[in-house]
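Bug #77: duplicate submission created two jobs. Keeping one. Sequence:
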Amino acid sequence: MIPKNINQKHILKAIKEIDINGVPKGRASRKFLLKYKTKTYPPKYTVGLANKFANGKELNPDRYSGGVGETNAFLKRLGLR
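Kept job's structure:
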């Protein structure tokens, strides 16, 4: 489950970190992409990384689902797609 205290500010910090460090092997998206400005990002990894800024550590990807059901709906509620 994605922690409810992650907000858009945390997602944007995660995006900046991805811009600097890239996406680790095995964390690229297979189906969906988060578009921000002119770039795209793997939604599930971005949310997991955002947890580091909200709660101190990256969220284990086994603890929440990717895709439309959880991750994409969460990002949409924050005004991101």
